[in-house]
Amino acid sequence: MESSSSMARRMAALAAMGFQRADASPIPSESVPAAGNRHKLTVTRPSMGTLVSATAIHASRDLMEEALGQALEEMDRVVELLNRYDPASAVSVLNVQGVIQGPPPELSQVLEAALQQHRISHGAFDPTVQPLVDLFRERRRGCIPDGTPVPPPPGASPMDTPPNREVLALLDLVDPGAVILAPRSISFGKEGMGVTLDGIAKGYVVDRVATVLLENGLADFLINAGGDIRSAGVREDGGPWQVAVQDPRKTGVFPDIIPLSGAAVATSGSYEIYFDPEGSHHHIVDSESGLSPQLSLSVSVAAPTTMEADALATSVFLMDPEEGAAFIDSLPGCACLIVDRHGRQVRSARWRSAREPPTSKAGIL
Questions:
Q1: What strands lie across the sheet with 179-182, from one edge to the other?
Q2: What angle do CA 253, 255, 257 make, to 5 degrees?
Q3: pTM of the full structure
Q4: Given a cut of 80, is residue 240 above it in pLDDT?
């Protein structure tokens, strides 16, 4: 049997390769009694380069098993559409051919949301940086957070930094305005363009899982897809779900713990996937400079949906921390916690910590 540390390294290596589906074999579910006559059921499955877990609480174990089973099937279905590393997926067809006729509605919805996030963030979030991300993946040795190297593609030099001229040459292809969303097609206005939905698709998938659970009558659940988290209702003791914010420096001390109910939270960090031992080039790319931002270590954003939280966390990571917190304060129902490159915490006005006394102030946390 594979050890937990070995599985963690394998899953991290998959994550370093991008948004992709891993082995779909489920990990055995765990069921424990909850308060009153209710049960608590947790299922876990590798997917999207991470481990996805869903915990539900209900009086009927049969209902939970059926609902969670349907939710995982929906997750697999949507992942197969949005996985740009699967040549048969809809997004891969779009990237290779520059056009797709009759696209699945899920692709159109996520891409439309990504372009909307580009506008909301004043250009910070950009799904068309795919050529730049792929350039760094192909030319640099990938590293995962525990230092384990990911071998470069055949023929690539392990430590070959792309020359600045190559980066500049690709910047012209980074152009959300050249993405044409028509009623029955999606196309690119420039040859060689591509889109990556890695900063928003995982959140969309988690929201789809949540929708299936709600449609099946489950009101109390928590979904966690490698830090993209969606909650509903309460946990087994009747209190709000509590979520720990990942420590970007891996010291074992969480920057914060937040109460979460009927909302979502997602975290972006330079520690997740990087393409050189120094961590100077990672999976988040500035669409103007073609370089990776270095102002923050991690950004956690809480929002009404996981897709919003996912995209906003990426957007804020590209901003100055104070600018990012002010941006989140301008959006209704959103809050953020930023850990800057020096380890300093910057919080938006609506961020609520479980370590603080309850407050009557408005906010989602």
A1: 99-101, 185-188, 179-182
A2: 100
A3: 0.82
A4: yes
